[in-house]
Amino acid sequence: MSTADEKSRKAAAQPSGSIPTAEEGPAPADTAGGKVMAFFFIGLAASLFVGWIVFPKLLYSQKKQPIDFNHAMHVQEVDNGCESCHFFRPDGTFTGIPKLDKCLECHEEVQGDSAEESRFVNQYAQKGKEVPWLVYAKQPACVFFSHVAHVRMGKMDCAACHGNIGESQHTRVYEQNRISGYSRDIWGRNISGFKRHTWDSMKMADCAACHKRAGVHQTSVQTGKGACFVCHK
Amino acid sequence: MEAVNRRNRAKKYGMVIDLDKCTGCGSCTVACMAENNIPFRKDESDKLLSIAWLHVYKLTNGKPFPHTDVCYLPRPCMHCEGHHGHSPCVSVCPATATDYDEETGIVSQIYTRCFGCRYCMAACPYHVRLFNWWDPVWPDGMEKMLNPDVSVRMRGVVEKCSFCYHRHQRAMEKAYLEGRRELEEHEYQTACTQACPAGAITFGDLNNPKHAVYRLKKSPRAFRLLERLGTRPKVYYLSSREWVRQAGDNHLQQEKQKI
Amino acid sequence: MAFGIGGAVGTALSPLPWKLTDDLSIWTQNWPWTPVPPHGEVTQVDSVCTLCPGGCGISVRKVEDRVVKIEGMPGHPVNDGGICLLGASGAQLLYGPSRIEGPLKRVGRRGDGRWQPVSWKAAVAEVAGKLGVLRSGGEPHTLGCLLRSDRGTVPGLFSRLLTVFGSPNLMRMPSIQDTYELTLYQMQGALALPGFDVDNTDFLLSFGSGYIQGWGSPVHMFRAHSRWRNRGGRVVQVEPRLSISAAKADDWLAIKPGTEAALAMGLSHVIITESLYDRDFIENRCRGFESWVDAEGRIQPGFKQRVLNTYTPAKVSEITGIAAADVVRLARDFAKAARPLAICGRGRGRVPGDLGAFMAVHALNALCGSIQRAGGVWAVPEPDYINWFQPEMDKVAATGMQQSRLDGAGGPQYPLARYLTSYLAEIINAGKGYPLKALLVAGDNPAYTLPAGGNVRKALDSIPFIVSFSSFMDETTRMADLVLPNHIYLERLEDVPLAQGFSRPLVQLCKPVTAPQFNTRHSGDVVIDIARALGGSVATAFPWKSYADCLKETLGGNFQKLMRQVYMVGRGTGAPGHNAAFETASGKFEFTNPEFKIRPDYEPIEAEGDAASFPLVLVPYDSMRLASGFVADSPFMVKAVDDTVLKGRDILVEINPQTARKYGLADGAIALLRTPRGKARVKIYHFEGLMPGLVAMPTGLGHSAYDEYIGGKGVNFNRLIGPVQDPVSGLDAAWGIRAKLTRV
């Protein structure tokens, strides 16, 4: 549908729409046109409302993290910033969200007076049960992502993709796409897909754009862009 | 960053398989299956339907007893270079589910992108591409042995040998952590190379004079399969038996006599 | 209408259609029913593979607590990083559907496969109760025990249990080890295991041994074969079928089956007549080469005289079908090689073979001095680390141990043999000796692996109480009354006392790489539990708290060392050398041991059956892709089996096209194969590489137990053949059986 068309139609509709229409008598041509226009606008408004407001609400289910985790506080307590808990193993792989035993290094007993902490200690730590964290940045199973390549070799900040999660005091609601099953963070907060920050979305196009800018592995003969195996497995 | 990338010399990963050493045992096949999450069914004896990325073929010289001879030939994906990276299979894929990487010389296969037209299977002269006619099923508990580095495939897609590219990725991750961009020869080896009890498979960068494959591919015993098609395969074979070398390609009767 | 258009416009201007399209396209790429294996920390744990006696070191890759892949252990003296396909598919055995999940008690008829889970306590009490009755009834000797091997601590515990219980009927599964051990004892006086220094030999002469089909330590042999290819070593294979060993050899001599010993003697003839033998070794280190006068004043013909009189190349050619010129050439090449080595034991070595033939091959090695030196045959000392205190035996036990063995081994007829397990079934079925009232089976699957499978099942059926210690629901376990499943090797701690065919003593420790998947229990612990439940002197012989304690105490200071480094190469790391005296009474290598008067010779062992009704001869062949031993194939291995071996449920038998034409058997035709022991439906496969007149069948198929990935495919060769006794040793020496093929 062309935008120029719409504009001209809207322009044509405007004056006739402003004339008050009588309800009595046979409907003059422009009264009928007015009705058409009214319906058009009702339709337009309704669909825009549905598309921009209702649809995003329906599309994502909202899930709470099992524990309300305070990143900001933890970053202050630990010595080594993010890497205190999210670090590289000697084989270069990234631990991602730490396992329970990492938490147990400090939380074998309740440390502070936070209700969430004691809930964590009672429900998980003491039972030896892993916390079923919901991973905002979880990519499909066919994606290979190397943290070390980006952080160590590409000198990128964690925040470049993950945002300022380290400064958060509470865990955000995890929103899951009801159709694709992936986290809202992948497509991005903005329903229209526009991004203001580098971390606003984590789709293939975002990876590809950055790789192209940086000239990383642009060696696929067929696509002229990044080779498939760079990011897929 | 661009400068850094340009520093990365283009590799051409390839394989040399010594058929004089190969005993046809099939350890490569099984190691490959275990590494690459290859499914198995109750009856796998129809080899046209059976999925094995590395199939071991049995060649015979066709002579009567007792002049008969047999040679086994393991066949992974040849990762053909073709004409400037236009290998037979990637050239025909309508979905761009497979591509040729100039940096490594590896032909990829992306399962989630493939829609199963099987055009690539028809194009491949080596039968290395296989189609998933069924969804894979693991008996209860057996899914525990699946390797997380390799995607599990599904019904309706084509799959093939990747030269264990995930092992390249893992090796690179370790190298990156240590601040390196280049791999040592031993750091990236395919599962079949590692498993081969006869040490018959050698894997490495065909462009790198320091790698064993660079020297071995120049051996007078070396040949490739169907070289005349111009596919420029990156898997070389070594054999001291003339009939085996001849079996690697199609020859006219008079050519056979000449050789 | 207008509403619709407005709606359409609005919708198009909203993200709805675009986002929906994108999400749907992603949705089409989701296959939630295919598993997504979880990521995690990757670790490699070193251990030992015990799926065959080869003794390879393995490195097990784990992701968190999941066993994902099994690889060869780099730097290991046996396999140095290589692995065979059975070893590589160990994770399938660990997680496979044929594992037994806990102790089971049979309900319903034997073999029906109906079981009731029981507790370990109840199971042990049941065994102790049943066995206790035998002891209180004064017939402890009616307890039998079948083990795969008789070395190491777990077989040691079983053996100890039988001794203090009072039964001499401990049996080991047959293999060429039986005959090789006798050969070493006869000619070198050594109670030892055969070791072959294949790394250093430059000429391998194989009398039908599948040197790259699973003979010896498979991966070690593969590596040796590649080393010969690098260094220009030569290999000659003597065999009626173009096996893969024959195909990879530099020369293949197609010999009439069963006549290998004649060729060995013929080669000796040429070597002696042409004076190509190792003069120093023969003259100074051997006895019985020349004729001698015995104590009674009679002239005893020496090896030389017997060989020269009887085995001329012409005569040998007549027996073996190999041209006389080839015999002469081979003899010269062999003797002139720097470090020649002759090996025997057909195929993988499942059948013990005849002693005379083994001694003939050993004599050939001796002629070339290839005994106890680099590239030759070495007597590897028995593992000697088990030094438990002598147990006290009560009167019942002492009386029971006085009884003769049921299989007749060591008895008046066959004094040399230690075990004659191949005949157990025939003896039981014929009602000879005394009846077995209880049988413990551990580490093997005799209902599948013993010859004359039908007889074995019948014999097992007559034993009132059978206990299986198997981890898998195999053929024997299906016939058991009580199943006490062991951990599999990836879950258990156990010593591995040897690596078959390896030239040096090698002690290794198999350790748990993952927690037990099911309610299984270490057989070592179960034996201790049973002994304790039996009480009295039986219990006092087992003072250990657990098997782990027993093992730690046994290995002493080496335990921690083995936990760290997996293997320890024992004494004798260098070649023992010629200078060490042989352990015979004379201190010399004996061509004919004066005590037993058994000599290297060719005595034809005939295939069972009459030629008139069975015009063909069926021979087995072994393949690395088919595990024919106590453990069945993995699903991956079955998948790797060629369609010239197995097609659907049909086994393919090889036959020379010339023979096939004679009997009207087209390639791919279905036929009925009959032998004096049984019959089977087979598919015909024309193979030029097989000697005319023979039919060749792969071993390792035809499991009737296990799951659908493994079982119900093809035919078990052991069902079609029976043991043929070597008159000298009493061991099974069958190399084939007469057969008939008819079209269906």
Protein model, in words:
The complex is a heterotrimer of chains A (233), B (259) and C (744). Chain A has a domain at 71-231. In chain A, strands 1-2 form a two-stranded antiparallel ribbon. Chain A has ten helices and two strands; from the N terminus they run H-H-E-H-H-H-H-H-E-H-H-H. Residues 1-23 of chain A have low confidence and may be disordered. Chain A is flat. Chain A is mainly alpha-helical and 233 residues long. Chain B is an alpha+beta fold and 259 residues long. Chain B has nine helices and eight strands. In chain B, the strands form three sheets. Chain B has a four-stranded mixed beta sheet. In chain B, strands 2-3 form a two-stranded antiparallel ribbon. Chain C has 744 residues and is α/β, with parallel strands linked by helices. Chain C has four domains: 1-36, no CATH class; 104-174 and 388-564, 3-Layer(aba) Sandwich (Rossmann fold); 185-382 and 574-590, Dimethylsulfoxide Reductase, domain 2; 616-743, Barwin-like endoglucanases, CATH 2.40.40. In chain C, 32% of the residues lie in helices and 18% in strands. Chain C is globular, with a radius of gyration of 28 Å. The chains are: A mainly alpha (233), B alpha+beta (259), C alpha/beta (744). Chains in contact: A-B, A-C, B-C. Chains B and C meet through helix 2, strand 2, strand 3 and helix 6 of B and strand 3, helix 4, helix 8, helix 9 and helix 25 of C.
DSSP summary: helix tally of chain C: 26
CATH architecture of the largest domain in chain C: 3-Layer(aba) Sandwich
Under the CATH scheme, which class of the largest domain in chain C? Alpha Beta
The low-confidence parts of chain A are 1-23
Task: Give me the count of strands of chain C.
Answer: 30
Which structural class is indicated by helix and strand composition of chain A?
A: mainly alpha
Relative strand content of chain A: under 5%
Task: Give me the CATH fold name of the largest domain in chain C.
Answer: Rossmann fold
Mean pLDDT of chain A: 85
